[in-house]
Amino acid sequence: MRLETTSDCARLDAKDLLEFYKVNPETGLDNSEIRLRTNLYGLNILESKPEESLFVKFFKGVFMNPMVLLLLGSSVISILVGNYDDAFSITLAILIVSTVGFVQEYRSEQTLKALSELVPHFCTVLRDSNQTTINVTNLVPGDIVSFMTGDRIPADIRLITSSHLEIDESNLTGESESRYKTSQDYTPSLNSANDSSFSEQQNIAFMGTLVRNGAGSGVVCFTGSKTEFGRIHSMLQEIEEPRTPLQNSMDTLGAQLSMVSFAVIAVIMLVGLIQGLGWMNMFTISVSLAVAAIPEGLSIVVTVTLAVGVFKMAKRKAICKKLPSVETLGSTSVICVDKTGTLTLNKMEVQYLYTITDGLISLSPDNISQASSSWSYNQLLKSGNLCNNAKIDDKNELIGQATDIAMLNAALRVRGVDERERYNRISEIPFNSEVKKMSTTYPSFVEQEYYQSISSSLNPGSLNQTVLYVKGALEHIIDSCTTHYSHLGRISTLDDSLRQEVLAQAENLSHRGLRVVATALGVDEHNLSFIGFEVMKDPPRPDVDITISRLIKAGVRIVMITGDSEDTALAIASSVGIPSASGSSSCMNGNQLEKISDAELAQVIGGISVFARSTPKHKVKIVRALQSIGEVVGMMGDGGKAKNKIPLLSF
């Protein structure tokens, strides 16, 4: 049996996978086995091209630049013909150009390297029956790793235990919603376009992703370049670094000056020989004229100008790795923008509240007092608060799953209190991706009015002095509801007309890219009372629409690339002012990108401004298509998710 991808590991039963890696989940690997596997698999690092020495970098900067080579040739010829002053000035120009460029690029590289080493990465691993903390670079396939909220996943791991585990995979997929993970076996969908789809592998924790909630443990399947992130990183190594527009222009100028110089030498030599002058004398004169025609100061001016640009960028906290990148930035004709964390805050916020009694209300600052005075809105926020696992940490910051954080924050804004501090939770049924809901149980006195109302209609023998709070996808919640909690504890029938009214309202909001989370309560999960729903989204960053407007006025086209759904992508694009983002014809999804060739994409990409359900591989394809039609492409994304843009960095 061979395991080549995480999809292969996901399909295996956990017991079979542990047998494959010859590891006991109760004791972990022993030291001798760790040494053996380290020699076999190597360190858990991403392999890059061998770093060049400073000497090689410096001289590559000299001999890979046609303009500098032309100046170098002129200097040699000047020495040969005795023009030592010219030779000295040209050599000085070469040294200035090469040194300034080398020093600036070296400083930028060192800064980037220092940034990457700011935070050492460690993980908790079971070895020789002991839990220990090690550097992630020392992990090997077969290690038993455990993790909890706030941890980064150190390798591709097949889960063997999980508890309320939610992982943010936005750095791989671009999707803002965390994914629920389970140790259960994985069965691929028949409709899956790709059998290694990240979204379907619910029992795999991928390297570099972030644990938002819960805890888990698992066996390491792949490390280093064999991980999914490592495969993405490998794309970077296969991409040749292109010449920038300025470098191409300088190359062209150097070639033209060379041809003109040789032509001048030939013409003057020919005229002199026709007139009977000595060929050595004429050669000296023609070479001197040709050297004089070469603008040795041009390279100095260009290099110093670019260096000044780099310094100015650095003052604005932007690092330019290569000097010509400054000019390329000014030549950019298309900017591909990531949605989550770039156009948006990467932070879910409740935008609206809806109850059957009071309808839909915007949760803007102006409406906080109105919401706080409404019994039904208070009940909705209370239920979202009690059926919630978000926490407030020592720094007074909310941590947990994005939806829970949004609902807790809304409750605190309107009600000013965390209800969980007042009541003790009896039990919890965690979120299940199949039924798409979670529930918590509290003593019946938490909802005294409701409990008294419902008790009269139920068999006393079925009551157990507890009340159940449920939240989740509206269609799953409302199917379990027979009544709705209307006002001051009154229970009213949820008839078909009311049910359709609620669903229609939610569908309208969903088409606007908003997420609907419903809540209900009851004493029986199959006989609930509907409360309402909270409507949330990842809001645009302040003034991002102004920035996009300025870029468009400057002649720069904006293309949004995201892992989110088409509805969400189009809604965000429209709200921030990306042109032509008003219909599905301007949007292409990942499945369509898989089926279309590079040439076909290049033909239609001019009319597409939004790409949804995109992976890192798709982003490379999009950028290549734009470049093939002559565009100078830039990529913009937040640093926390740079991993899903790594293949683009060489463009």
From TrEMBL:
InterPro entries referenced in this protein's UniProt entry, alphabetically: ATPase_P-typ_cation-transptr_N (IPR004014), ATPase_P-typ_cyto_dom_N (IPR023299), ATPase_P-typ_P_site (IPR018303), ATPase_P-typ_TM_dom_sf (IPR023298), ATPase_P-typ_transduc_dom_A_sf (IPR008250), ATPase_P-type_domA (IPR059000), HAD-like_sf (IPR036412), HAD_sf (IPR023214)
Annotated ranges, domain Cation-transporting P-type ATPase N-terminal: 8-83
Region of interest: Disordered: 171-195
Pfam families according to UniProt: Cation_ATPase, Cation_ATPase_N, E1-E2_ATPase
Subcellular localization, as worded in the UniProt entry: Membrane
Transmembrane segments annotated in the record for this chain: 62-81, 87-103, 257-279, 285-311
Polar residues compositional bias, start-end: 183-195
Topological type in the membrane: Multi-pass membrane protein
Keywords, in A-Z order: ATP-binding, Membrane, Nucleotide-binding, Transmembrane, Transmembrane helix
UniProt main location, coarse: membrane
One GO BP: monoatomic cation transport
GO cellular component, one term: membrane
Gene Ontology MF: a single term: ATP hydrolysis activity
Protein name (record): Calcium-transporting ATPase 1
